[in-house]
Amino acid sequence: MTPDRLRGERMARQRLLGEPFPDLVSCVGTLGAVQFQEFEDSLWALARRTKDRPARDAIAAEIAGGALVRHHVLRPTWHVVRTQDLDWMLDLTADRIRAQMRPQLRATGLLEDRDRLVGLVGEIVEAADGPVTRKEVGDALRERGVDLKGQALGHVTFSAELDKVVTTGPRRGNWDTFVPYAARIPTVELDRDEALVRLAATYLAGHAPATAHDFAWWAGLTVTDAKRGFEQVEPDEVTPATSDDTAFLLGLYDELVIAYQDRSMYEVPLGSGGTIDVWGGNLVLLDGRVAGTWRRRKPARKADPATVEIVPARELSPTDRERVEADAAAFVDHLDIPVDLQWKDAP
Prior knowledge:
Blueprint: H1 3-13, H2 24-31, E1 34-35, H3 39-47, H4 56-65, E2 68-72, E3 78-82, H5 83-107, H6 114-127, E4 132-133, H7 134-143, H8 150-162, E5 166-168, E6 177-180, H9 181-184, H10 192-207, H11 212-219, H12 223-230, E7 247-250, H13 255-258, E8 282-286, E9 289-297, E10 306-312, H14 318-335, E11 339-343
Parallel strand pairs: 10-11
Antiparallel strand pairs: 1-3, 2-3, 4-6, 5-6, 7-8, 8-9, 9-10
Helix pairs in contact: 5-8, 5-10, 6-8, 10-12, 11-12
């Protein structure tokens, strides 16, 4: 398969090309899990793949109390998944995340007291009149004689998510809130092999063509488990597609790129350890390959418009720029606020 056809099939499966998903739940259900580290950018990732491009508030409401939930699962970062999938996904992946977290817990002096602190967090969230922020959890812990701040507090609430004690509720401004896990998430019991096959099938439905190493990266599994899952599933075929003539402004953690261990097909600049290195920006893709970065900047004064700043990584023709600007216009429409589009070319 040629690189442009490989990229095109992935775009078609993720509905960046062709008919969009009919609704948010089917979008997330097909993708399996959508990395949601940057909340605002990730709202756009869902909107652009879904019919009628639902408004930001509608997506946030679905995540706050509907059929979608934002939680630490698969890898040590935020994902949005369907509420009906979270329980079995945690059963499959939480132990490896706990192991990855152990050095941080040890460094902050929390490892030996982890389980007690998680229990306290559960008591605080359960007793609250409504959703509570991490800061409010910290305040309540302090009243109980436990003074945790910064990363230490984050490690404890993260651990409470992994242990199915809390999950997220509605955002309060820019802050996440926590609610009791059992109040939002149904129990789904699968044996490990069944869960592994289900996750492999879901991954391939929304991300193929991909390798077992890609799946292991995305799912937080061992390569051995990833290969075992792949051996038992075969993705459905999709209509042939190509990445030629495409132009997308994507978030840095968009599933089209972040969901694969090998990102060479997109010509993504990499830093040490294989991490994406775009100098704090997001990705501009032309014909499926990185052509620049973009950033959304807040206005200096409240009365001024925000700015979407695009920085080309190479020489772009006037036609290329028009294609990028057309996708930028869709993003600006999604933001529904005054925005200036600016090009910032290298001197």
